[in-house]
């Protein structure tokens, strides 16, 4: 044994002695990845932040910082001496802005004329700890993916050098705060936005390439990544568990990877007719078919831990509604927005985001009784069966086609929402608002 | 016959905490990491217990989770220090042992994991490869590079190992 071996073995023996002298604690099963002390620090941080925000909004000035993404300084901002890897966009720093139509105050990006900054649909723009926001920049300034330091209201967007298989198929890692996930060839890779380092997490054997298919499929909160494997002319549905490294495969005819529910226990897989089938974790068909009509959906978990989807329906008895649908046959749909709640028929172009017991619904168009022209927040934490709603005007006037869509993304804590709007100008910006600042109640 | 989760927990808990301690440098963080991995094992025990090496599976889970968890736990530590409520550490390694584990933690993640599994766990290169989901050659390369880096680091401290 050489000297290095001896020192390592000796250190191991020392540790062994110390651990053998300690008590064996009882097993404490816990499902949440958030330790109790983390929650405590989080709450302290929120308290500090809330106090600071309140102090700054009471100074009589017209500008408030209370609506910047609420990230407690004591947790998420601790390592903010780290700068994102990439090129800062050489423009003036974002400026806060008031919108007279609602009396709300937003923090915004600072797009030049013809430049568009939007959150991409289908996956959260927020990193797991809410310290970063991922946006897409296009128009005269793009195209590129950019991140904004959500803890720093004056931070300009920073361009990332990434090449996902589709602009929408780049996802925040469900556990790592600085890390994006996307497919590259037959690999699942990570991109660290701080260091710029790209690492292959897993290579999928037998696949010429992997991707999410026709639409983005973000990883679930439990670490399940779902992808389509393209190989030898065949399609295979694959799930990869970021925690255990386990892989599951099943042949598929679907043009999209099945979307894993937050628990990873269920997956929703598109069928050719626009409906979707519910699969279990082992990729077996549960027999439940959801009549989705190819509409976007987001997962929601009720207080009993039952998983649902929020989606729009433009056909059938609940036509013109945003509803919750169960992933089994036991639950009747619950209408969040729609004629049965006194709302007008919403036009197409409805975007959804669901996190932390809230659903954000943004509808294109000018304001009318259908909640068009507004971002509406449905609070399922208050009541799952008959949830209260608040809303605000997004001011997007459809001046730039698709890029004027009021894309919306709730933060993981459900405290902040970002959305994009052309605001009647030649640019599209992304705005943030703390949900606590929305004062208008929509019945 | 498969081992019960309770028996496994009693047998392996301290060893698992030790591995997490080597990687994290904090006893309470190590307990947190271990409990996290054990929770996963508990949830899937009916499957995991029949694996050839259930303890290896638990280690893979813990190591896969540890990168992000360690970052968060380091943040938590700083947060606790700010609010004056830092937890008391109950492991007090000797100065020489402390130097060794500190040097291990300065290594790239994979190298630190290989060293921890090799020296703390007494795992073979093949077992390490299995746990880390890499080839034995890759594990061997990590071990070799880690040993070279550690020799340099520890020599730099006192001019000797």
The helix content of chain B is over 70%
How many strand elements of chain A? Answer: 31
Oligomeric state as shown: heterodimer
**Separation, N- and C-terminal Cα atoms of chain B:** 45 Å
* Individual helix count of chain B: 8
- Sequence stretches where pLDDT stays below 50 over 5 or more residues of chain A: 30-82
Q: Would you tell me the overall average pLDDT of chain B?
A: 81
Percentage of β-strand residues of chain A: 35-45%
Notes on the protein architecture:
The complex is a heterodimer of chains A (443) and B (161). With 443 residues, chain A is mostly beta strands. Chain A has helices spanning 3-20, 36-57, and strands at residues 87-88, 96-99, 104-108, 115-118, 132-139, 144-149, 158-160, 171-172, 179-184, 187-192, 198-203, 209-211, 224-231, 234-241, 247-251, 259-260, 266-270, 276-280, 285-290, 297-301, 307-313, 321-326, 334-337, 350-355, 358-363, 374-379, 389-393, 408-410, 416-421, 429-434, 441-442. In chain A, the strands form 7 sheets. A 5-stranded antiparallel beta sheet of chain A has the order 1-7-6-5-4, with no helix packed on it. In chain A, strand 5 and strand 6 (144-149) form a beta hairpin. The longest helix of chain A is centred in the first third of the chain and has 22 residues, at 36-57. Chain B has helices spanning 5-24, 27-43, 45-48, 54-82, 95-105, 109-120, 125-132, 136-158. With 161 residues, chain B is mainly α. Chains A and B meet through helix 1 and helix 2 of A and helix 1, helix 2, helix 4, helix 5 and helix 6 of B.
């Amino acid at each position: 044994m050489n000297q290095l071996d001896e020192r390592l073995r000796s250190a191991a023996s020392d540790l062994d002695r110390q651990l053998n002298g300690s008590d064996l604690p009882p097993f404490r099963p816990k499902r949440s990845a958030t330790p109790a002390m983390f929650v405590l620090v989080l709450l302290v941080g929120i308290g500090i932040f809330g106090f600071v925000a309140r102090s700054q909004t009471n100074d009589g000035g017209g500008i408030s910082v209370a609506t910047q993404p609420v990230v407690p300084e004591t947790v998420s901002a601790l390592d903010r001496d780290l700068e994102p890897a990439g090129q800062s966009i050489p423009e003036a720093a974002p400026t806060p802005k008031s919108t007279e139509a609602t009396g709300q105050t937003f923090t915004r990006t600072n797009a030049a004329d013809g430049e568009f900054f939007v959150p991409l649909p289908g996956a959260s723009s927020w990193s797991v700890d809410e310290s970063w926001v991922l946006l897409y920049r296009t128009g005269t300034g793009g195209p590129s993916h950019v991140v904004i330091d959500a803890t720093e209201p004056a931070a300009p967007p920073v361009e990332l050098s990434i090449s996902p298989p589709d602009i929408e198929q780049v996802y925040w890692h469900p556990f790592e705060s600085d890390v994006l996930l996307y497919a590259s060839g037959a690999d699942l890779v990570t991109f660290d936005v701080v260091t710029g380092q790209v690492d292959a997490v897993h290579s999928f054997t037998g696949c010429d390439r992997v991707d999410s298919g026709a639409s983005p499929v973000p990883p679930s909160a439990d670490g399940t990544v779902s992808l389509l494997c393209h190989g030898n002319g065949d399609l295979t549905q694959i799930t990869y568990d970021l925690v255990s490294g386990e892989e599951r495969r099943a042949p598929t005819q679907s043009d999209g990877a099945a979307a894993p529910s937050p628990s990873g226990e269920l997956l929703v897989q598109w069928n050719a007719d626009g409906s979707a089938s519910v699969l279990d974790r082992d990729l077996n068909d549960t027999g439940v078919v959801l009549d989705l009509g190819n509409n976007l959906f987001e997962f929601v978990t009720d207080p009993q831990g039952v998983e649902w989807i929020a989606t729009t329906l433009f056909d059938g008895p609940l036509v013109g509604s945003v509803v919750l649908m169960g992933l089994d046959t036991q639950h009747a749909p619950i209408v969040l927005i729609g004629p049965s709640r006194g709302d007008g028929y919403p036009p197409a172009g409805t975007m959804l985001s669901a996190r932390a017991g809230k659903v954000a619904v943004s509808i294109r168009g000018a304001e009318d009784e259908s909640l068009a022209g507004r971002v509406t927040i449905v609070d399922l934490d208050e009541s799952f069966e008959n949830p209260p709603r608040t809303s605000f005007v997004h001011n997007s006037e459809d001046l730039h086609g698709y890029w004027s869509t009021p894309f919306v993304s709730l933060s993981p804590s459900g405290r902040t929402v970002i959305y994009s709007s052309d605001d009647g100008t030649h640019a599209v910006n992304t705005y943030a608002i703390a949900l606590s600042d929305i004062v208008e109640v929509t019945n | 016959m498969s081992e019960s989760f309770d028996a496994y927990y009693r047998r392996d808990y301290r060893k698992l905490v030790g591995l997490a301690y080597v990687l994290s440098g904090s006893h309470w963080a190590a307990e947190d990491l271990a409990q996290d991995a054990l929770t996963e094992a508990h949830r899937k025990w009916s499957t995991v217990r029949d694996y050839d090496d259930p303890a290896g599976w638990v280690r893979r889970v813990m190591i896969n989770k540890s990168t992000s968890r360690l970052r968060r736990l380091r943040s938590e530590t700083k947060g606790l220090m700010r609010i004056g409520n830092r937890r008391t550490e109950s492991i007090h390694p000797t100065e020489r042992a402390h130097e060794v584990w500190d040097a291990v933690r300065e290594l790239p993640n994979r190298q630190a994991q290989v060293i921890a599994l090799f020296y703390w766990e007494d795992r073979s290169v093949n077992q390490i490869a299995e746990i880390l989901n890499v080839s034995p050659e890759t594990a061997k390369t990590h071990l070799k590079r880690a040993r070279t880096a550690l020799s340099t680091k520890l020599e730099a401290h006192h001019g000797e190992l």
